TrEMBL record:
Residues 49-407 form the Tyrosine-protein phosphatase domain. InterPro entries: Prot-tyrosine_phosphatase-like, Protein-Tyr_Phosphatase, PTP_cat, Tyr_Pase_cat, Tyr_Pase_dom. It comes from the Eukaryota. It holds the Pfam family Y_phosphatase. Belongs to the protein-tyrosine phosphatase family. Non-receptor class subfamily. This is Tyrosine specific protein phosphatases domain-containing protein. SMART domains: PTPc (SM00194), PTPc_motif (SM00404). GO terms for molecular function: protein tyrosine phosphatase activity. Residues 283-398 form the Tyrosine specific protein phosphatases domain. It comes from Panaeolus cyanescens.
Amino acid sequence: MSRKPPAWLETAVKSDKYIRMVFIDLEEREVKRDAARNSTRHRQDNEFMGHAYRRVVDKNHATHYSIAIATHPSNEGSNRYTNVEPYDRSRVIVQSTALTGAPVSPASSEQLDPHGRYLNASWVLEKFGQKWWIANQAPLPNTAHAFLSVILQPVTQPQVSGTALPPFSREISRTSRVRTVVQLTRNIEDGRRKADAYFPTEVGRSVVLRAESGYNGPPLAVKLLHTNSHADTSSIESIISISPFDDITKKPNEGKAVIFRHLLYLKWPDHGVPEPEDTDSLLAFVHQVHRLNKDLSIYPAHQANMTVRGVPELDPDPPIMVGCSAGIGRTGSFVVLSSLLRHFGFLDAPIRPSPSSVLKPSPLGPLPDNLTSDLVAQEVDSLREQRPGMVQRPEQVALIYQVLMDAFMSQT
C-alpha cells in the first residue's frame, strides 16, 4: 500500500526557511543543555568557566545533563574531542567482568557505576522507531579494547526511570550481544585522522589489542575473516572475530571467539552530507544495516539454532553500534533516519520495542508548539537528550527530510 508523506515533511523539503527555523529552535534548547554540561566539567582549565555556569544553571539541569565522569582527568584521554562527552546517565559502562560473561546495561543517575571501564559511547533510544542503539565515537588506540569488550559481553535493553523489563527481555539478556557495528567515517578524510583501525585489512590476519592502563583484562586477538564491497550501498562489509587470550596458555582462545559484522559507509563527508547522487545509496545502506543485523548466516548452524532454556542463543534483533568520528553528527542523523523509516513502515519494527516513555522527561519541557507535528524535530531533540550534539548541522537536518521524502517517493 502506498503511503502519503505527511504535510510537515512536504513543507520541509520545499522550504529552506522552514529548516532554518527548525534548527534554530533545536539549537536554543541545546545551548541550555550545553550550559548545564559545562557546569559539571572537571577540567581544571575550565574551573572559572564552571563556576560561572554553576551560578546560572538550575541544579536539576546540571544533574540531568552531567558529564562529570566523562570529563574526569582519568577519562579525558579516552575522548577523541574535548567537547564531545556522553552524559553520565546514558553512557555505556564497560564492566570489568565483561570477558567473563556478566551482563552490562547502561546507567541511570540512580544506578551509576563509577567504577566501570569508561568508553565515549551512549545508549540512545529511537523516539518513534523504539529500537535501542549504542552511539559511539570512533575508537582510539587506547579505547579499542574497551570498545570490543562491549561486543564480547552480553547486553540488556537499558533500564531507565526505574522501569522493569519484561521477563523475556531479562532472559534473553543472558545471550544477547551486539552483532553489527556501523562506521560512517573513513579513517582518513581530507588528510586528517578521523578514526583509528582496530582490525587488520588483510583477510586471515590478526592483530592483538591490549587493555587500557588500569585494567588487567586479557589481550584480544582480532581477526579479519571476510570482506566484501557493495556498490549499491557504497559500503564495505567486514566479518571479524574477537578471541580473548587464555590465562593459562597465553594464546587466543578461539573456542570463545565472538563474531561481528562491520559495515563502513563511504559517501558521507565529515561536517557535511552525501552528494545528491549518493542519497540513494544512503537509503539502501540503512536497509542493508537492519537486514544484516538480523542475518545469522555467518554464524555456525549449531550456534544459530541453539537455545538456552528455550531462548535463542543469538538475539534475533540486538542493538546496533553506530559511530562516525565524534559519534554525534552523522551518527545522530543515521539513527533519526532509521527511527522514522521504521515508524512509517519502511523498516521492520523492532522485535522488542521500547516506548520512549521509559526515558526521563526533559527538564527543558516540550518543544515549541510550531514543532509538535514535526517528527524529525522531535526525534532530533529526543536524541540530544540522550547524547550531546546529535545531528550537528542544518544540512544534516535537511538531509533527513530529503531521504525520508525519497523513501515515500520511491514506493512502487
